[in-house]
Amino acid sequence: MGRVFFNTRENIDTTSITGTDTYVMTESDSGKTFLVSGGAQTVTLLPAADLVEGWRCRFITTASPSGDKVIGAGSAIMSGTHVATPTESDNGAGTDGTAVASVTIEAASQAGNWMEIVCDGSAYYFFAAASQDAAFS
Question: The pTM is what?
Fold first, then answer.
């Protein structure tokens, strides 16, 4: 039985979420991990017109961004939660069951913080984890 190797580098995006330009995601971004750093405010839009069941992506902060990174869905169709250190007083990204239109990776976010987003065909669900206060809102 032979080994099968996948080109995992195809699934790592190191440039789209590091600048100031708006990046509009497509169906082909499903399964990718976006490394987040640098740049002023960048708005990242998920595919809102044609939601795809099973579409998913992950964002990992590699260095504190110099501006907020807004992950937007175009309408209030995102629900989820944010967990952080046990002493955190700001769990701002949790939606308490009320859908929101966007989630922000704050400039205060540090290396290693991450957020995963999954679509069921009608809405997006996110889970975010951070090691300090105010990494997400």
Answer: 0.84
Work out whether the CA dihedral 26, 29, 101, 68 comes out positive or negative.
negative
Q: Is 53 left (phi over 0), alpha (psi -120 to 50) or beta?
A: beta
Whether 67 contacts 41, CB under 8 Å: yes
pLDDT of residue 85: 63
| pLDDT higher than 90, residue 57 | yes
Is the CB of residue 109 less than 8 Å from the CB of residue 84?
no
Tell me which DSSP letter residue 6 carries.
-
Rounded to the nearest integer, the mean pLDDT of the chain is: 81
DSSP 73: -
Residue 73 burial (C-beta neighbours within 10 Å; 0-12, 13-18, 19+): buried
pLDDT above 90 covers a percentage of the chain that reads: 21
> What does 92-117 look like in DSSP terms, one character per residue?
TT--TT--BSEEEE-TT--TT-EEEE
Read off φ and ψ for residue 80, nearest 5 degrees. Answer: 170, -165
